[in-house]
Specification:
There is one protein chain. This protein is of the alpha/beta class and about 375 residues long. The protein has 3 domains: about 100 residues, Rossmann fold (3-Layer(aba) Sandwich); about 70 residues, 2-Layer Sandwich (Dna Ligase, domain 1), CATH 3.30.1490.20; about 170 residues, D-amino Acid Aminotransferase, Chain A, domain 1. It has 13 helices and 18 strands. The strands form 4 sheets. The chain has a 7-stranded mixed beta sheet. A 5-stranded parallel beta sheet has the order 3-2-1-4-5, covered by helices on one side. Helix 4 crosses helix 5. The longest helix has 17 residues. It is globular, with a radius of gyration of 20 Å. The structure holds adenosine-5'-triphosphate and magnesium ion. The site of magnesium ion has 3 residues, from strand 16. Adenosine-5'-triphosphate binds next to strand 7 and strand 16.
Length: about 375
């Protein structure tokens, strides 16, 4: 069992990863580039390290990270955030990293490349063009989704944060969004806008070309209500129905891209069929929900990176619910037309549901929040 350095310690994803690896028997340290380090307060964290910002110059981050790895003899680095992963993809590390940022990772996280991969895999994905090609308005019509080509674009001196999409209703708004991404140093893409009905998420873990985790959940509520992050989720079957179709589609794009490791994808269901919206080749926002259901995805990824024996395939019982409390409270307060009725969701919430970051065996990370309230 090795020593693992988990990066992006301020995120709840890192907290879930630290707990997962600590419970798996690893010695875990946490790196963060800011004072508030949620995951560093976990009882599973043995050491917290200050690191330079991954958004700054490549050489500074590479030097700071190499020093920590050497001083504390880490065997593996685990990154949780797209921007850190974009920086790691430009650095030669002395130890393996999760996720691996080879060709497969690039083909999934470059949103223009993903269009090519999805088509070859026979998976529905919005028609996509590089904004620089110019004829997007005639080809795709309006509204358009305008995004950066990837959520974090790496330059030698900086990483450009470029998460999310702008839904442009007219040509002027689309052109302004394209100009804004381009000026910041992130090439833009334009996409056909998909009208959402149901939002499903799929997760797979792949090792040596085989899939050992197949998992899916449905989004019950999201904030902002017009299209945001899931704040209330329910796990669904991954071997049949729509959940099964989403997981099959994610598996197919991973296979086509030549990617092994953790993959999470967002799907919109249109006319009863899943349309792929985004692939995240990393741990995802509700990684803790996966842990509560016994998927053990972070541990599988570290075992693969360190050449250790694989765990047996995961199984879980669908129907478990999970909530992001701050987001859910905002959803409840929202008075807009997109939210729908509160009561059908509220009356199904139970104390034994999963709650993001909450663990009675490891309460310390949340105590400062509680006392601040
Ligand atoms: N083609 C599209 N049609 C409609 N909505 C879209 C489209 N593309 C993206 N969106 C919306 O914008 C959100 C952000 O887009 P996307 O997931 O591609 O960005 P990201 O930077 O990868 O974000 P994340 O941090 O969620 O991975 C999606 O969750 C979805 O709600
Ligand atoms: Mg993404």
């Amino acid at each position: 069992m090795g020593r693992i350095l988990v990066l992006d310690g301020h995120t709840t994803i890192a907290l879930a990863v630290v707990r997962a690896l600590g419970r798996g028997g690893y010695a875990v340290g946490v790196g963060a580039d800011r004072a508030s380090c949620l995951a560093g307060r976990s009882r599973h964290c043995l050491a917290a390290h200050a690191l330079p910002s991954p958004l700054g110059p490549r050489a500074d981050y590479a030097r700071g990270l190499a020093q920590v790895i050497a001083a504390d003899e880490y065997d593996c680095v685990f990154a949780c955030d797209d921007l850190t992963i974009a920086r790691l993809a430009t650095i030669d590390l002395a130890v393996p990293a999760v996720p691996t940022t080879g060709v497969g990772w690039r083909r999934l996280t470059d949103k223009a490349e993903l269009a090519v991969v999805a088509e070859a895999a026979g998976v529905r994905y919005p028609r996509t063009l590089l904004a620089a090609t110019g004829d997007a308005f005639d080809t795709l019509g309006l509204p358009l989704a305008v995004k950066a080509v990837s959520s974090g674009v790496a330059h030698e001196d900086r990483i450009v944060p470029a998460k999310g999409a702008v839904i442009a209703l007219d040509r002027a708004a689309a052109e302004a969004a394209i100009a804004s991404f381009t000026a910041r140093g992130a090439p833009a893409i334009v996409q056909e806008c998909v009208v959402r009905h149901t939002k499903l998420n799929a997760v797979v873990f792949r090792h040596d070309g085989a899939t050992t985790v197949r998992y899916a959940h449905r989004v019950l509520a999201e904030y902002p209500t017009a299209g945001g992050v899931g704040v209330s989720l329910v796990s669904i079957r991954a071997d049949a129905g729509l959940g099964g179709s989403c997981v099959d589609a994610l598996e197919a794009v991973c296979r086509e891209a030549g990617y092994d490791g953790i993959a999470h994808a967002e799907f919109y269901v249109v006319d009863g069929e899943p349309v792929l919206i985004d692939v995240n080749a990393r741990c995802w926002g509700s990684t803790w929900f996966g842990e509560l259901q016994g998927l053990r995805v972070p541990e599988r990824a570290v075992r693969a990176a360190c050449g250790e024996a694989s765990l047996p395939p995961a199984s879980y019982r669908p129907g478990r619910r999970f909530h992001f409390v701050p987001g859910l409270l905002r959803w409840l307060r929202d008075g807009g037309p997109e939210r729908g009725p509160r009561w059908p969701l509220v009356r199904t919430i139970r104390p034994w549901d999963g709650f993001d970051a909450v663990s009675f065996r490891d309460p310390a990370p949340l105590l400062p929040l509680a006392s601040r309230r």
